[in-house]
């Protein structure tokens, strides 16, 4: 579908995240002369709880012009709701974004994605299991989706990269300034390895508090299933779990996230019926994808010179991985 980028990006900057409403207003807007009427229609049809004053047409156009320059400078692309290259799973949720920005090369027509998220302050066993899950799904060719945050998210991305797989980081701010700043090297590695940064916030904007829950609906909406590795009773990961259930996604919790002070939320999910998994193979078995199962076992470190020689050979062969003091051996399909 041909469209005027300036007009699309201007209307996308209207407050709110109801993508289909913005889509309806956008498709009815023929040119910039129609923009004031489109803003009035949007104001009349958005939620009655939305009381903020909408930007003027001139303000939206000026901001959109600046956005186009940022998109070009940072090589940020976008997918538009309703077009064939927009991720189908995301289009099916109740409130998909009108514009999904991407930095990198996301491919949405392969195997289904798996979201793996959790607390920023995990226990060491939970952090190691998050890495192992990312590694296993990557080795099996599944996109691994997380939020680039500290703790579980970082471990998941690291595991997927170690397995030479695809990982997508869904951000709550503009893709030109990945957050947290200390993870910008990780973001660069994700893009360099064929993954992508994704989000609905226009470039140039820092993450706002309201944007994190909105980000979580995209994170789960891109995937067939969601794994909560570890979460306390008040955790953003539990918001992702709620979105996953509302979107009819499969929800799992990791076995390592059942113990400790940071596990109150995951234990509650288990009491509510979420199955506990110990590896990616449990998820693939649940999905009936037995041919995709890859076995990665947590193993003890070297106990002597013979073990050391054997493990060095496995590492050179790309079958041994180390993370946070843990060792993981890939035994194959």
Task: Characterise this structure.
The two termini are 42 Å apart. The relative contact order is 0.12. The chain is 41% helix and 17% strand. With 333 residues, the protein is α/β, with parallel strands linked by helices. The longest helix has 17 residues, at 57-73.
CATH topology of the largest domain: Rossmann fold
| Structural shape | elongated
What's the overall average pLDDT, rounded?
Answer: 94
Q: Biggest sheet, open or closed, and with what strands and sense?
A: 9 strands, mixed
**What is the highest CATH level, the class of the largest domain?**
Alpha Beta
Quickly give the structural class. alpha/beta
How many E strands? 12
User: How far is it from the N-terminal to the C-terminal residue, by CA?
Assistant: 42 Å
Segments where pLDDT lies below 50 for 5+ residues? none
Contiguous helical run count? 13
Strands, helices and their partners?
Layout: H1 5-12, H2 19-27, H3 35-45, H4 57-73, E1 77-80, H5 88-91, E2 99-104, E3 113-117, H6 124-139, E4 144-146, H7 152-162, E5 167-170, H8 184-192, E6 196-199, H9 211-221, E7 223-228, H10 236-246, E8 250-254, H11 264-271, E9 276-277, H12 280-287, E10 295-299, H13 305-316, E11 320-323, E12 326-332
Helix pairs in contact: 1-2, 1-4, 2-3, 6-7, 9-10
